[in-house]
Amino acid sequence: MTLYDWLLFLHVLAAFAIVASVVAFTVLVVTPDAAALRLTPLARRLWDIGGGGTIFFGVWLALNRPEYGIFDGWVIAALLLWFISAGTGTRFGMAYESARQTGSPPERSLALYGVMTAAVALLLLDMIFKPWA
Amino acid sequence: MSLAIIRPDGWDFPLLLHVAGTMVLVGSLAVVLTCLVLGRREGAVPLTRLGFRTLLFGALPAFVVMRAGAEWINSKEDIPDDPSWIGIGYSTSDGGLLLLIIATVLAGLAARRLRREGGRSPGVATAASLLIALSIAGYALAIWAMTTKPD
Fold first, then answer.
1. A27 contacts B50? CB cut-off 8 A
2. B15-148, CATH topology level
3. What average pLDDT does range A18-36 have in this prediction?
4. What is the pTM of this model?
5. Which of A37, A109, B77, B147 would staple A9 via disulfide (CB 3.0–4.6 Å)?
6. Does A5 sit within 8 Å of B27, measured CB to CB?
């Protein structure tokens, strides 16, 4: 396996962790009971691993390949979407962590969930369609 | 690897379906495994029911999207002499479906038994969680094969 193969594999694996985190957060949102809140640590850890992994291996990939440039339109869009998703996802996770301590689901967190999910979905679209490449 | 980098535009949407379906499938399986494992300690009734519902409404539909996307992109790429990475993908997908169906039935039985009798998580829930762990390991192998594309 080449370095590129490793970087791509680890980048994609980290992306899987992010989507797995969104799935876990979705289960938390649609199941507002105390038992479901026990999924919060899973969702938060997957978010941390996925977020860190995608940005680290993604930037390395962009620097590693001559076909990709860090200032390509789709790469800049990805970085922007990553910051939006990282900010909202981290705050959303913290809201659920507080809820887990108290035992009742957080209020007024749906907007954060919506922005986080939309940003992750747009990130996936950006990675596949590569606009402005 | 140039195939992965330079890709005709017409392949993008089927690839999106395939990748998004797989991501939601693996995410759902991770949630179910966590539910069933946490349910062994306490909260077996709600967590086993939640795991069963996640299999039913998350993992199974995601599998259909993943497989439909795979068939679609495979028909567009039309790669001659199916290389090993495609074989790994199909083997994982076919085996994964079987494991998914059995795990869903077992989790459903566990949820029903717990609702009627209560108590600790039954053995069928443990069997379901083992099958799901096996599926996740298989999908990790498939992700490696799909991204590195060995001959």
1. yes
2. Four Helix Bundle (Hemerythrin (Met), subunit A) (1.20.120)
3. 93
4. 0.93
5. B147
6. no
